[in-house]
Each structure stands twice: as C-alpha cells, then as structure tokens.
Specification:
423 residues; mainly alpha; 18 helices
Length: 423
C-alpha cells in the first residue's frame, strides 16, 4: 500500500511537471480564435490525471485516459483554423500525462524527463536552425548511418571472445569503430562550423579528432608554404594531440572504466602539457618569427565527414593487434603484450588502447598492468607524429613541434609515476 507521504510526493512532482512543460507551451499558445489547444492549466491537469490513474487503478485506467485524451486532441486538431499543421502541443500533452503516471512510480526519473522535454520544446528555433541551416545534408545522412551502426548492427554482434586466444570480442571491435566514426564526424562538423577565422590552433585541435598524424602533416605543409604562419601551424599541430588523449579516454571508458581510472593521471597530465605548451607558444612567440600574414584554411586529406573506410581499417588494425596480443600473452605473458602494443602504436594508439582495455575487462590482464602497454603504444605513436612533423614542414616548424610532442609523451609517463606514488 502506498503511504500518504509517497502519494503527496507523486502529486507534487506531477504538478511540477505540468507547470514546467505547460509554462513553455503557454508562451506559444497565442490568443483569440486561433490560439493553441492547451496551456499551462491543461498541462498541469494532464500530469495530475496521469498520476491519479496510476495511483487508483494502474495500467487499465491509464490506457483508458490516454485513449480519451487522444480522441479529444484529434477532434481539437481537426477543428483548428490556423495554418500551422504541427502536432507538437498535442504530443507534448500526451507525454505530460505519461510523465505524470511515471511520477507515481519513479518521481526523479519523471522530473528529469520533464526537464528534457521542456528544453526540447523551448529550443525550437535553435533546433530548426541547426538542422536546416547548420547541418549539411551529407552530415545528416552520416548521423543516420551512425545511428544504424549503434542501434542495428551493434546489438547483433556477440559480446564474447570468438578466437582460440580469447582476445577478439566483436562487439568491442564494433564499439571502437563507432567511436572513431563519431569523433571524426564531430571533428569535421566543428571544423566546418568554426571556419578558418578562428585560426590554425583551433583547426588543429578539431582536426585531430579525424587524424592527429594527418593534421600534423597538413600543418607542416601549410607552414612550409606560408613561413609567416609557422608558429600558429605548430601550435595547431601540438593541440591535435589533445584530441588523441580525449579519444583515448573515450575508447578506454566505453570498454573498461577501471583501466581508465588507472590512466587518469597519465592522460590528464599529457593533455595539460599539450595545452600548456600550445598556450605558451601563443603568448610568447619565437624572436625569429616572421611577420604574421592572413591565415589560410588548412585542408585535411579528402574524404567525407563520416570516414567509414578509415574506421573499418582502424578496426581491422585493432583486431589484428588484439589477436597478436592475445597470442603473445598466451605464449610470453605480459611482456608479449607490451611488445605488441609498442609495435602497434606506430600505426594507431587508439587500437592499442582498445585492445589492452579489452584484455583488462576480460580479466586477462591486471588493471595496473594495462597502463604500461597503453602508454607504450601512445609513445610509439608520438614517434610517428615526430616523423610526420620532421618531414612535412621546414626546420622552424620541426623545432617548434617536436619539443611539444616529446613533452606530452614525457608528461604521460610522469603521470604514471604519480599514479604509482599515490596508490
């Protein structure tokens, strides 16, 4: 039996839900013969009806209430005389009734959902502007593809190892591919919306979500063609490593949170070192820096915003590293994993991190022991970036970028030492 206190709490939550959503709808209701069908009072009553239906008779009365409300809203919609054919208010009213019913069982969840509904309703103009003016058609299609990858493909994949060494988990591999596609898409969208006017450093930061090595190469080529912009190009190259550490954090987080906790200090200090070095290069330019010229747009390698081919290639690399690491771990123990991680890092640090985190999640590697192979892959990947910086730009660009990249790697290992010291 529901206590009086719980009943009063549910009713109060329902009133709050109705007032919150109804206040937003009241502002758009209008006046006169063309006014909307529901305002703040109607929404408050709808939420209360939903709560009372659940408290009195449960699901049967609630279903009858929803059917009755839908019939009334349909009749009101048919009799509308204004030209707006939208159904937002009608659906919001039905949703408010359901949220009121949910408040009788889970008040906190109902209140949180009500806030989300109110935000969506209030952000009508911003959402319409973003979808119709900011988001391109290709990006919208890419978002749909990404949604299918998450909601359709991922649930169909087995969530257990399928190889003799117990290393290849198809769902973890696909989760990694989805994450790479999502971060690449986000980086492209932010880069396009920000534009070149925000400068090379910001472009390097966002482009690093697509490929840090490619960004460093592009920045080096830009500095070679425009010597007066060598310093901001170098700053953008170093800031691209921030995207690397952020992606590493996301990759490890979706696979094994304890491993991420063990790497909190290394990843945090590496990110801080990158930002600090880039900030110092902006505040204190080199004395031999040529006079600044108008900045040009830096273009990455051609490709769409959602680079499915690259994500599949990185996933295949991850699968190969996982299989190799599993075999070496079975034959040589943790030393084999360390060797495979260091070698695989020259190609991609994210694949190494995902592989080692998967092994830690499956209990094949201790959480503390997983930190060293991941940082080994991160360090060897930093060497790849150093090579890209050395061969893509001039000497000035290399002198500005290489210390920053090495500082980031050193900060990561220093963070590992701090984590051991504070354990």
């Amino acid at each position: 039996m529901v206590s009086i206190g719980d009943t009063l709490t549910a009713l109060a939550t329902a009133i709050g839900i109705g007032l919150l959503i109804g206040a937003e709808r009241e502002r758009r209701k209008g006046a006169g013969p063309t006014r909307g069908p529901a305002g703040i009072r109607t929404f408050t009553l709808a939420a209360l009806l939903g709560t009372l239906a659940m408290l009195l008779d449960g699901g049967i009365l609630l279903v009858a209430l929803i059917v009755a409300m839908a019939s009334l809203l349909t009749a009101a919609y048919v009799k509308q005389t204004h030209e707006d054919p939208g159904l937002t208010t009608e659906f919001a009213l039905l949703l408010t009734c359901l949220l009121g019913a949910l408040a009788a069982r889970q008040g906190a969840l109902a209140a949180g959902l009500a806030v989300c509904v109110a935000i969506v309703l209030a952000a009508r103009g911003q959402l319409h502007h973003f979808v119709s003016r900011v988001l391109s058609e290709d990006e919208l299609n890419n978002v749909l593809i990404l949604g299918a990858a998450v909601l359709v493909v991922m649930p169909l994949l087995p969530n257990h190892p399928i190889d003799p060494f117990g290393a290849l988990n198809p769902r973890n591999i696909w989760r990694f591919a989805v994450l790479m596609m999502a971060t690449g898409l986000l980086g492209r969208m932010i880069q396009r919306m920000a534009g070149p006017r925000l400068g090379l450093p910001l472009t390097g930061l966002f482009s690093g979500m697509v490929s840090s090595v490619a960004t460093i190469s592009a920045m080096g080529s830009h500095a070679l063609a425009h010597p007066s912009q060598s310093r901001p190009a170098a700053t953008g190259a170093v800031l691209s490593t921030v995207a690397t550490t952020c992606q590493l954090t996301a990759v490890i987080a979706v696979i094994d949170l304890p491993t991420l906790a063990a790497l909190a200090w290394p990843l945090g200090l590496a990110t801080l070192a990158s930002v600090a070095y880039a900030g110092a290069s902006i505040v204190w330019p080199a004395p031999d820096e040529p006079a600044a010229a108008p900045q040009q747009e830096v273009r990455l390698e051609p490709g769409g915003a959602l680079d499915v081919r690259k994500a599949m290639l990185l996933s295949a690399t991850m699968a190969l590293i996982m299989l190799l690491s599993g075999a070496l771990a079975a034959w040589f123990g943790s030393r084999g994993v360390l060797f495979a991680s260091a070698a695989g890092g020259f190609t991609d640090a994210h694949s190494v991190a995902a592989t080692v985190a998967s092994m830690a999640a499956d209990g094949k590697l201790g959480v503390a022991a997983a930190a060293v192979p991941i940082l080994a892959g991160f360090s060897s990947n930093t060497l790849s970036k150093c090579v890209a910086a050395a061969i893509s730009g001039d000497r000035r660009f290399a002198r500005q970028v290489l210390p920053g990249l090495l500082l980031v790697a050193l900060a990561a290992w220093l963070g590992l030492g701090v984590s051991y010291w504070t354990r």
